[in-house]
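Researcher: Structure for this, please.
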Amino acid sequence: ILVVVVPHAAAEVITVSPVTCQSDGADGGYFLRSGMTPSGAVNMTTTGVIQSPTFRVSSGAVIKFLVAGGNHPWPLDSVTALSGLSCSSAGLAGVAAVTLEQLDQGTWQVVRAATGDDTGAFNPVEWQVSELGGESLRIRLYDLATDDQGYISADGFKVTHCAQNQPVTRPVVSGEVQIAGGGWELVRRVKPGASWHPAGDHLQGTAVYGKPVTEYPTADLSFSVRFDDKDFDQFLFATGDQEHWMILNRDALAV
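Model: Predicted structure, token format:
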């Protein structure tokens, strides 16, 4: 069984390296910060997004961390996260924030957000997330701001009641396949047997056939959904039981 899945895109990513703590209140000797090159030079004009692996929490969970940076909050009227790691969104220009995002029917939604206060000092943040128990979650740092306080820093993440991610053997089509950090969307599969994929689009994503299934490797169905209109840069090829898999850059398969 071959499963073809597409990750959310990584079009533009912050270059972040651990740097020696210089802001008041940091936890330990290192923290994450945007707006700084690996050599330690400050560059507030850089923009990008970094994210955690997908995780889950149990009932009663609390997420605590420290945040510093410019006061550039996530807009209250925007709940849909940027597609993949793309930074191209006029509606979010100027944002520099830490977000907690929940996967809801195939779309990431921002459910919590925090930003800095322009002082350079780290401030504690505490999110009560009991109602999100069992949901697929991720944490992101957005830096879409380019002014003289256009950066975001975070440190000391602690999650209580963190649920263990169980091996995924029957993922839903609209959800995520938990290989190489997760974030993969299933778009094509072939049923067990000696036959190959019916698609003849050379992985361009234009072939559409069959009925998408929510169970494999036992489902006796082949399908393909359109993905040429999706924003992504990698393919994951995997057996139905996810024991064997391979990741290739999209441009490596260009025809």
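Researcher: Any notable elements?
Model: The chain has no helices and 16 strands. The radius of gyration is 20 Å.
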